[in-house]
Amino acid sequence: MSKLVRQRSRWGWFAGLALLCxxxxxxxxxxxxxxxxxxxxxxxxxxxxxEKKHISILDQPLESSGELLFIAPARLEKRTLKPxxxxxxxxxxxxxxxxxxxxxxxxxxxxxxxxxxxESIRATLAGDxxxxxxxxxxxxxxxxERWTLVLTPxxxxxxxxxxxxxxxxxxxxxxxxxxxxxxxxxxxxTIEKRAPPQ
Amino acid sequence: xxxxxxxxxxxxxxxxxxxLACAGIISRTHFTTDLSAFLxxxxxxxxxxxxxxxxxxxxxxxxxxGIEGADAPTRARLSKQxxxxxxxxxxxxxxxxxxxxxxxxxxxxxxxxxYLLSPAVTPARFSADGLHAALSDSIDLxxxxxGLLVKSILPRxxxxxxxxxxxxxxxxxxxxxxxxxxxxxxxxxALMLMQTRAAGSDTDAQQHAMAAxxxxxxxxxxxxxxxQLVMTGPGxxxxxxxxxxxxxxxxxxIISLALIATLLLLVYRSFSALTLGLLPVVSGALAGxxxxxxxxxxxxxxxxxxxxxxxxxxxxxSIYLFVQSEQNNADHQNWIKRFWPTxxxxxxxxxxxFASLLLSxxxxxxxxxxxxxxxxxxxxxxxxxxxxxxxxxxFRIHDVSAIGLTLSRVVQRxxxxxxxxxxxxxxxxxxxxxxxxxxxxxxxxxLSPVSQVDVELDTRLRAxxxxxxxxxxxxxxxxxxxxxxxAAERAxxxxxxxxxxxxxxxxxxPSRYLPSIATQRARQNSLPPxxxxxxxxxxxxxxxxxxxQLFTPFLAxxxxxxxxxxxxxxxxxxxxxxxxxxxLLIRQQRQWRALLPLTAPEGVDINAERVRAALSAxxxxxxxxxxxxxxxxxxxxxxEAIALSLGGLVAIIVLLLVVFRSPxxxxxxxxxxxxxxxxxxxxxxxxxxxxxxxxxxxxxLVAAVGSNYALFFDRPDPRTPIxxxxxxxxxxxxxxxxxxxxLLAFSNVSILQALGVTVAPGVILALIYSxxxxxxxxx
Lengths: 198, 779
Hints:
The complex is a heterodimer. Chain A is built from 5 helices and 11 strands; from the N terminus they run H-H-E-E-E-E-E-E-H-H-E-E-H-E-E-E. Chain A is an alpha+beta fold. Chain A has a single domain, classed as outer membrane lipoprotein receptor (LolB), chain A (Clam). An 11-stranded antiparallel beta sheet of chain A has the order 6-5-4-3-2-1-11-10-9-8-7. Chain A is globular and about 45 Å long. In chain B, the strands form 4 sheets. In chain B, strands 9, 10, 11, 12 and 13 form a 5-stranded antiparallel beta sheet that branches. Chain B has a 4-stranded antiparallel beta sheet with strand order 3-6-2-7, with helices on both faces. In chain B, strands 1-8 form a two-stranded parallel sheet.
């Protein structure tokens, strides 16, 4: 990858949540670099999400929904509106979690498993292949019209918590993130793009 | 003649014994440069606290370290390498750079003792309703992004006590992590925070700690030339100011001695005269140091700096002797008859002026007073009784009568300047009156020998670190640990309401990590016995997506907690919490004291009235704003010093009145001194320099030195003209004084600089005003 492209990719944006960028559909098989480059093209974007978590110690799955906002290169905001308002802001290495009056500030480095989980989403949105490959083995299937990216943790310590992460997308947009934990718990987040604020 | 010689020999012997005694005392003297000179001799409780904190408190032991230059990964690597090495060093109680070294131990401690430590543990929380609310909170958290963090502990801690504790512990803002080590917000500097075992006032230990940090940095495997180490903190300040004072005092004394020696050589053209002329100076300096050492037990560096300037004053006496005497030995005896009474009176007025400083509650000022008095008496006495006997038979100095005659002619015409001088004086009065509100600087920072650059570095690192500046403290005292902890818990409850109202950003308390026995027992008693808790839990899970069986570990843990031994201070050892408790819970002889540092909301000062009002229910609790307290301390010194100086002035006037019994004559002597003092004050104000205590000491010196000139110009009979030789001696004397003090004006230690800019121009002005306003000889 040329220096120029890398530079752009760092400032690129999570295209999955962006407006259609007028590219013609590719029928040809997609390479990871191609996908990352197209994901990296927009500096920011907003989307809505719904998330369903299956946790073995709970009798029913937990459902939540809200908004996602990504600002390249490193800021990811997840605003849960239902069932209870909660804001999670990931900025650089700091994760801030606000629930009601309470505010938790966590350093991602202190929680490698949480870091791996959140980083997978942020790095994919940023089209940051290097960041992804620091933590995961990547496997890509399908073409630009419809692709599936599977992340498997490299570090066995992370692997003890996260079995794999499976992302599906259409063109330069991520449509779903499914996280399968090693203990069998899982979560599925479906994402719908929204017009970015102008 | 023989009689005189015998007395001379006796004087020399006595003098030598005296010098030996002084040298003996000085060899055993302790020299300091710490804060002791600025701390009151009879402190109030608030001042005592301030002193303890300054000398020994938590904040006094902190060293903030920054690593600059190179790139972020290198800085982080250096930070980790330095930290690893220093964590093994006994010099440091803790070395923090954001690496989670204690994290595991801390977490275990908190988790195992969560039911004793968590303020949320109340009987209501373990009722069916309370449990239901706590459980649904925990399930919400499980569904959140932090769910992964709590999932594993939910069966043991369904009420979320651990989350409560972690939140409390991490309430302070911490620097961001870059490559696994703390970094400044702009990312250009790696940050570390160290706490020394030794007190901040132990300058040697602080210097040792700084050297250990520097060495760890220099020898770190990743060290590269482009990376730099910076350090700041109270201990660092005392080390650097000691170095500064030491360096400056040494340099100033060498330069001022060289200057004065050159000046005297030009005048005397004789090395033996120069050597002999410096004997009173050396005697005075030794006497001054010895006297301060005996009187105060230690000599402060600032006193030595002042001493170097006093060289220029002490040398005056021998100048008077050499220059005013005729060119033969007999005339030295004649000099004693003719001039000694005038000089003796000059010395006495100086002593009267400085004696008032001895009464000061500010030890630094009292030291200066004692040094000046002892030094001047010794110098004058040696000049009078020893020096004449030491002069060789054919002792002579270069003839200065030509200079004297020129001066005579100038002085004859000086009267013409009376009107212009009066106008200048009036203008000066006007300036002083107009600026009277801003003449004085009454913040203690004005005394600090720390340079502006160092202060800025400190401010920057502190802001980056979010380090506690420990400005606001709530202090609780009691007879034993338990009563102090209970009082701290009561105060915490009151302070918590202020936090919720937004008056405070937060506060710390030792009771947070080590609750009182009573509180721990109450928390223990809040936990229901197992069968009861089981029933309530079954009710609580109704309507929640969990089954009660999941919480069997919780039942086991609470049952164990009900009978677990209560926490003692020793249980905290080897956790990060131990450090906090050590710093915040202090045992002093038979008294215990808990400190609760308050954090102000960002960008605002704490409203002291609100805090005092909130704590009014607890009359024994002390709220101290350390900065306000230290400024109040200093402005107290300043006002006291102003009063004492005025007292000194009155003493001088009374002395002169007693000697001369003529108010007019006294007025003529005092007037030029007052004029010089007013003009210097106006000048300082014009140049925007606010006066601190040391300016005041400088003004006193102007009065003391100037009184000599005024006395020489004063003659009962205006028909006797002033001898040209006398005029020449005064010129030389004032030049040496200006050389001695003028150098201080270039010092970057503010208190020495203040002396310099006051005394040097003041002495010249006193001479000029004396000449202008002297009674004219009718000749």
